[in-house]
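User: Predict the structure for this protein chain, please.
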Amino acid sequence: MTTLHAQAGQLLIMGFDGSEPTPGLRQMLVMLRPGGVILFARNILDARQTWELLRACRETVETPMFLCVDMEGGTVDRLKNAIAPAPSAEAVAATKDKKLFRAHGRLIGEEVRALGFNTDFAPVLDLSFPASRSVLASRTVSHDPKQAVLYAREFLRGLREARVLGCGKHFPGLGEANLDTHQMLPLITKPWTRLWAEDLYPYRALRREMAFVMVAHAAYPAVTKSGTPASLSKKWIAEILRRKIGFRGLVISDDLEMGGVQAAARVDEAAVETLRAGADMFLVCHNEAHVWGTYEAVVREAEHNPKFARQVATAARRVMVFKKRSKELKTSAPPPSALTVRKLREQMQRFADHVQQAMVVL
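Assistant: Here is the predicted structure, written as structure tokens:
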């Protein structure tokens, strides 16, 4: 990992259109050598096609890649058509059964793994407060941070049993956000003492158990004294998440194409600023021009700014060390057979029925 271009590529996780490896996609992968790719429902037709698409991405890039998906269950379920719908975090948490919490993570992990992924951007650690109910809905599990930790810890253990990396999100917490960060930048005025005791509690408790933490596009003026999103804030990333909380995994920004961050910076500027603030990686999930633009912006800034170049090198080194240590990236699942898909579907359907029955009893 010696050249600047190779370093910059490792800091990017990119999305793309289409459900097959086109010549254009292959060219992007060869040129950018990204640290990972992320698939969405638009990329996923069925289990075998998904596995083949991920294999093509994996084999086009020399270095191991994070093969990512947002798979929470409920409203954020990218695999419901390829396998079967998974229950939401809220529904599973409502059973109060730790075994079901872990089974939720393990079954989702087994689906993710079987289709060729190795990284799941879940669980959500945001707390369930009235302000965000209309936005986050069933993605959150409780207003009580200890209950949120109880569910998330077991979910993460389930993912690990399936050899899938997990990610806590959306740091430092969107529980008090009444706006959707996909469209707008929420301004959360909650004081530091309450943020530390409530929203940040899950990150403190789980800091050694998460591979990734994803940083939100929301502003917390009581902490930063500004309207800067946490995703671009050195105060939040370098000082609080890294130093004060002591998180040692990989820090990744949420998608830089979201309206929440674009309220503060252009997509290419945001890529530079999130790395400057201390993030290791950033997501660009949709627009091919933005994927290229962010990569080029990082390279250009590093070429003209030695301090930033050192930050890029340090982040790339951290990413590569993490990859070398991660057993989840060392092997991949065989192509999913019809029998494998049927078993996964039946398992998830039985699990969903079990969760529903447990909720009824409660």
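The radius of gyration is 19 Å.
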